[in-house]
Amino acid sequence: MTTLGLTLGKFAPLHKGHQFMIETALQEVDELIVVIYETAVSPVPLQVRANWIRSLYPAVRVIEAWDGPDGYSDDREHEIREEQYILGLLNGEQVTHFYSSEFYGAHMSLALGAIDRRVDEARVQVPVSATMVRSDPYKYRNYVSDIVYRDLITKVVFVGAMSTGKSTITEALALKYGTSFASEYGRDYWTEHQVDRRIGLEAFDEIAVGHLEREEQALRDANRYLFVDTNAITTYMYALDYHGKAPGLLTRLALENAQRYDLFFLCGDDIPYDDTWDRSGDQKRHVFHQQIIADLKERRIPYIPLKGTLEERIQKVDRVLARFKPYGNYFGELVQIEPETEGGGTVGAGIERP
Length: 354
Known about the structure:
Elements: E1 4-9, H1 16-28, E2 31-37, H2 46-56, E3 61-65, H3 76-90, E4 97-100, H4 105-112, E5 115-118, H5 130-135, H6 146-149, E6 154-159, H7 166-177, E7 181-182, H8 185-193, H9 203-220, E8 225-229, H10 232-243, H11 248-260, E9 263-267, H12 282-298, E10 304-306, H13 310-323, H14 330-334, E11 339-342, E12 345-348
Helix pairs in contact: 3-4, 9-10, 9-11, 10-11
């Protein structure tokens, strides 16, 4: 007889306790269904939570329950609604084992005519809950997979021309917020590999990949925020400047950057130019700054300009982060921040519309 297991929940977020239950089920049954409910307890969208399980457990059949019953309750009316909903989803498919770590395992297994498999109900094997992780993801970091944890971190990137303070503000904010940062990989690569201040076209793909690897490493240690110094879009602009074109991988990664970061800050060219040996002059900086703005607008990426002293820039970032809601309509929400005077004009939070 083919065995079919079923478990359900919000997985908000998915943690090692959930994984222990899923892995136990995969060892015991021929096939496993995981039903994921929509919920208001976490800002992480249902499809993102579903994709965590799809990525970690490709053999699992994941069902996104967008219209499922809300919350858990031992009220019999709620139990009946949930039982009827799950039976409707199954459409006659016979479940043999129902997996859970909660009290609802009793009524659901009975309604399904399945074996009631409680896995680590006392939280002895994995002493954690989703509520605990939501309260402080960094504290319970060891109970969350890397693929999940990265989606719990707000990723903030600083773009701009050379000598506009990107590195300085990135490191300063990481120190202030007690988190990690990703420095600019391209600058390190260029310093090591340049010949007569030039690098080859193929090197820009290597820079893009190396920078992403540096970000991913920093994400593992991030606490609520990750601050990033430049990204593939900036590398793309440098490739155009050097060679008049960009290699294929870099071009693709630059296109994906619009979805990779939660917030884009554009560092202004209003600060004194640091004329080091590896830079091309202040006039070049002003031109490159305008080119980056044009590229962001062409990509339809909303960005927040930073001007003034380091302290003034940090204060502006602080105000934005205080209002920012992960997975929210950040452009629509940030324009509600009290208007500020910028360059003689008034704009909501200094946001530039693409």
